[in-house]
Amino acid sequence: MSRVYCALVHHPVRDREGATVTASVTNIDIHDIARSSHTFGLCGMFVVTPIDAQRALVVQILEHWRVGGGKRRMPHRSEALAMCQPSSSIQEAVQLITAREGRAPRLIATAARALPNKALSSYSSASTLLAQADPVPSLLLFGTGHGLAESVLSDADLLLEPIHGVSDYNHLSVRAAAAIVFDRLFGRADRS
Ligand code: SAM
Predict the structure, then answer these.
(1) Confidence label for 172 from pLDDT (cuts 50, 70 and 90)
(2) Which ligand 1 atom lies nearest to the CA of residue 141?
(3) Measured in angstroms, how far is the CA atom of residue 71 from the centroid of ligand 1?
(4) Is the CB of residue 86 less than 8 Å from the CB of residue 60?
(5) Protein residue whose Cα sits closest to atom 26 of ligand 1
(6) At 44, phi and psi to the nearest 5?
(7) Residue 192: its pLDDT value, please?
(8) pLDDT digits (tens, 9 = 90+) for 7-45
(9) Three-state secondary structure along the chain?
(10) Is the dihedral of CA 63, 3, 130, 90 positive or negative?
(11) What's the sign of the alpha-carbon dihedral 66, 72, 78, 82?
């Protein structure tokens, strides 16, 4: 299996008008996606924000759960958060993964909507790709706000097809979307 990381991206993301903005870090996003990442065997999770004060908040949250009171009270949660780290940008996360893995990661983006002129990858094809013993690591990108900026989607090596429900209503939280994406890529429904 390819070594897979994920990034919770707070910049560049879109606002409701489509402008590129920086979204605020949300504690529950970090906790939930770290737990899902650990459950599905990811190698690490990056919390991406260019704002120094926000990265300091991320460090504070992680320390509480890694070595503070949180670790004593909820060791399982501590284990999941131990795989998290802040980064100032997607590029910095790529550099950190490259330094750790010896190869730059392929970027796999996600979005609730398709991007004109960008091919979509199915979950089955992406799952098959990631299941191969491959020295190239992968970085799954999840946005916040109103989604990843179009530049991130268009520059990604793969753009996963949107998760579709049963109607045009499509407003999953990033926490829910990440869990569904992980299960489609790595989950084993047949495992008793
Ligand atoms: N409308 C936004 C969009 O177009 O991506 C959804 C924003 S949602 C709060 C933030 C993130 O959750 C998205 O950037 C994407 O990573 C993920 N996400 C949300 N809905 C999704 C879907 N239907 N399919 C795939 N990913 C989704």
Answers:
(1) very high
(2) 16
(3) 31
(4) no
(5) 111
(6) 180, 165
(7) 54
(8) 999 999 999 999 999 999 999 999 999 999 999 999 999
(9) CCCEEEEEECCCEECCCCCEECCCCCHHHHHHHHHHHHHCCCCEEEEECCCHHHHHHHHHHHHHHHCCHHHHHCHHHHHHHCCEEEECCHHHHHHHHHHHHCCCCEEEECCCCCCCCCCCECHHHHHHHHHCCCCCCEEEEEECCCCECHHHHHHCCEEECCCCCCCCCCCCCHHHHHHHHHHHHHCCCCCC
(10) positive
(11) positive
Question: Rounded to an integer, what distance in angstroms lies between the CA atom of residue 188 and that of residue 28?
Answer: 26
What local confidence, expressed as pLDDT, does residue 190 receive? Answer: 72
The first and second tokens of residue 4, run together, are 């897979």
Q: Ligand 1 centroid vs 192 CA: distance in angstroms?
A: 31
